[in-house]
Structure formats: structure tokens, C-alpha cells
């Protein structure tokens, strides 16, 4: 039997972290060597011999966690939100000094979500209007969701490359927030509702028609195949990878 990959989970007591701990424990090719919560020292990652660190914590702590992992030669698979351009820039600098080390930052590990965002981005250049509605459980601390931000960025890049102008919008009088927030020129609306897990709709509108890409995560089990794919692949992809798209054969 080939050697098991030594994996650590950060945020192990959280909603996602607890699910990831179970998924790693159930995988024959992986060995869970550490499961850390907020008050545990990162030094135990070194003591445990972790090769891959899975970060499912909070936006305030994720950068320091990943920095520690990379500085100690560990690869990182990151699901935590909050990675703005400034943080990504600092991480790229760090990775340049650590050749061979890989970091995957995946705003969404659900394969259906990755596909829906990629397909919506591709289709968006054929429509005048595009807006995103993301819907989540009310315990979520950040808005808009990382997935919505990433989807808006993909859409914006695709439309810019095709020379598509901004969508029509005659609004001249607005109660604050009524039109959502603007992410790279795409309006994003955030719903927080008890009973939901993680859901997103991309609405594309043209004269007389609408195309909707909707994805629903009904259970956090939906994220685990992507987490495991990340864990198994990140060591073979040095540098920074943004989004699980690069680990899939989307053919787009
Ligand atoms: N990429 C994806 O597919 C997905 C990403 N997410 C993202 O993952 C993150 C976690 O989500 P979720 O599990 O719902 O959130 P939770 O609040 O349930 O879990 C976060 C956990 O991180 C712990 N924590 C905080 N700081 C640290 C630290 N420094 N070291 C270790 N653990 C720490 C918290 O501890 P304590 O309880 O003590 O505060 C908590 O248990 C969010 O950013 C969310 O948006 C969520 C779902 C899917
Ligand atoms: O907090 C969550 O729950 C989720 N967070 C991620 C995000 O912000 O996009 C991924 C998924 O939507 C669930």
C-alpha cells in the first residue's frame, strides 16, 4: 500500500471542519494527524508531521494559518472566505520564496457550484443583464459569499474580454442596499434565512428571455468530494491556485 498523506484540519470544531475531519478519517489514502480548534497552537502541525493543512476557519485567522503552513513547507487547501487582492498578493510573494509548495483557495468545494459558476460566466457574454442572488444560513458571518464574489469576478472578466457593456439599469433613486452590492460591475444580493445551507442563482436576461443557473448545497456533505480532491492534488500543483476549476477538466 502507498503511504498515507498526513492531513491536518484547522477549524475542526466548526460546521465545515467537523465534516472534513470525518471525510479525511473515512479516506483510506489519508491520515488525519491533527484536528485543531481556535485555541490550539499551530506548532502542533509540525509535531504531528502534517503535509497538507485544510483551513476551514474564519476570515480573521485564515491568512496567518496559511502563512504558517507554507513557511513550514506544508501545502494548504483553503475553504475559508476573506481572501481579498491584498491577502492574495502577500501569499503569492510568500509562495515565490517556497517553490514546490502549493496552496489551493477554493471559494466553493461543491463540484456543482464550481460548474454552475463556470457555465454562467461562459454564458454571460450573450446576455444584456446579469445579477447574482446568493442565499445562505443566517450563521454565516460574511456577505456577500466568497462564491458570489468569485462568480462575479469570472463573469466580469468574461464580459470584459468580449466587450459587453454594463447591464442596463435606470435606477436613479435607491434606498441603501436595494440594488445589492457591486462586485466588479455585477450586482450581488445576499439572503440569510434559517433552514438554508448554501445556494446561488445567476440570472442572465436578454430581450424576452431569461437563463438561470442555480446551485443548491442542501448538506455540507456536498463540499467533501471537492475537499478531498484538493487534498490529493494540491501537492502536485505548486504555487497559488484560485478555485477548484483548475483541478477539474471543465473543457471551457
Ligand atoms: N469553500 C467551501 O466550499 C466552503 C467554505 N466555507 C467557509 O469556511 C469557513 C468556515 O465555515 P463554517 O464551518 O460554516 O464556520 P464555523 O463558524 O462553523 O467554523 C469556523 C471554526 O473555526 C474555528 N476557528 C476560529 N479561529 C480559528 C483558528 N485560529 N484556528 C483554528 N480554528 C479556528 C472556530 O472556532 P470557535 O467555534 O471556537 O469560534 C470555528 O469552530 C467560512 O469562511 C465559510 O464561508 C463554508 C462552507 C463551504
Ligand atoms: O459560509 C458558508 O456556509 C459558505 N461559505 C462559502 C462562501 O462564502 O461562498 C461557500 C458556501 O457558499 C458556503
Q: Which key features would you list for this structure?
A:
7 helices, Dihydrodipicolinate Reductase, domain 2, Rossmann fold, binds NADPH dihydro-nicotinamide-adenine-dinucleotide phosphate, 2 domains, alpha/beta, binds the ligand O=C(O)C1=N[C@H](C(=O)O)C[C@H](O)C1, 252 residues, 5-stranded mixed β-sheet, 6-stranded parallel β-sheet
Give the cofactors and ligands: NADPH dihydro-nicotinamide-adenine-dinucleotide phosphate, ligand LZUJQKHR
CATH superfamily of the largest domain: NAD(P)-binding Rossmann-like Domain
Which bin fits the share of residues in helices? 25-40%
**Count of beta strands:** 11
Let me know the average pLDDT. Answer: 97
Listing every helix as H and every strand as E from the N terminus to the C terminus, the arrangement reads EHEHEHEHEHEHEEEEHE
The gyration radius over C-alpha positions equals 19 Å
Strand content: 25-35%
CATH topology of the largest domain: Rossmann fold
Strand order of the largest sheet: 2-1-3-4-5-11
Overall number of structural domains: 2
CATH-derived architecture of the largest domain: 3-Layer(aba) Sandwich
Backbone structural class? alpha/beta
What is the CATH domain class of the largest domain? Alpha Beta
What is the count of DSSP helices, taking H or I runs of 4+ residues? 7
Name the shape in a single word: elongated
Q: Biggest β-sheet, characterized?
A: 6 strands, parallel
Q: Compute the separation of the termini in Å.
A: 36 Å
Which spans have pLDDT < 50 for at least 5 consecutive residues?
none
Active site: 136 (proton donor/acceptor), 140 (proton donor)
Domain Dihydrodipicolinate reductase N-terminal: 6-109
Pathway: Amino-acid biosynthesis; L-lysine biosynthesis via DAP pathway; (S)-tetrahydrodipicolinate from L-aspartate: step 4/4
EC number: 1.17.1.8
